[in-house]
Amino acid sequence: MILRGEALRRLLACALAGAGVVWTAMALAQPPQYKNDAELMGAAIASPEGVGRVLERLVQKCGLYGEPTRAHGNAALRAWQARHRDYLAEGRRVRAELQATYTDSLARQRFDDLLQTQLPMLVERQFVVYARSIDDQPTEAEKAGLCDGYFNAVDDLQFDLKVNDPTLAAFFDRRIAARGQTNGLGAAQDAAASAPAASQAPTASPASTPAAE
């Protein structure tokens, strides 16, 4: 699948939308709607990885406001990463699959620009929204309180992909399940192939067995 022209533009748009989906969802917007798997793959390039990067930045910033807040943030982030481990890995697989399709130099350049420039810029913009809200608090105690509020939201799954983009989460689930079934089938076929060889091992016939003396 080599994407050019309008198809590539749609993919890039879906990737950017995917990166920002958590924040739009938390603003009570509707989860994104996808027309096909190509658009889902576009969103998978950026989400949930972009969310994880923002949370990492948030934990670093909030760690300045006391050990309890730092510990809360680190625990919330680790739990989020554990819940999204398979999705993060699948997003990287989708990214690699798409990168491998580009032979046209202009399309590859645009795709690389998305990964290296546009998505990091979007992550930065989203982080700045949180950072400014924290900076606006008049005391360190209130800054820590706002940070803990964000981490409570992470604990309550409000930053989870299944909550904010269930369609993309289901897309990942289908891919993961299909690959597991394929791997399982391959293992079963390997076992079946080796079974006849084992059953054909030579056995001594009565005629060829040395007589006992």
Commentary on this structure:
The protein is an all-alpha fold and 213 residues long. The chain has 10 helices and no strands. The protein has helices at residues 5-19, 21-26, 37-44, 49-62, 67-83, 85-101, 105-135, 140-155, 161-164, 166-199. Helix 1 (5-19) packs across helix 3 (37-44). The chain is globular and about 55 Å long. The N and C termini lie far apart (74 Å).
Largest sheet: none
Could you give the distance between the termini?
74 Å
Shape: globular
Average pLDDT taken over every residue: 79
| Beta-strand content | under 5%
Q: Identify low-pLDDT runs.
A: 1-5, 24-28, 186-194, 196-213
Helical proportion, percent range: over 70%
Q: How do the helices and strands follow one another from N- to C-terminus?
A: HHHHHHHHHH
Category from helices, strands and their pairing: mainly alpha
Number of helices: 10
Overall strand count: 0
Specify Rg, calculated over alpha carbons: 25 Å
Write a compact overview of the structure shown.
By secondary structure, the chain is mainly α. Helix content is 76%, strand content 0%. The longest helix is centred in the last third of the chain and has 34 residues, at 166-199.
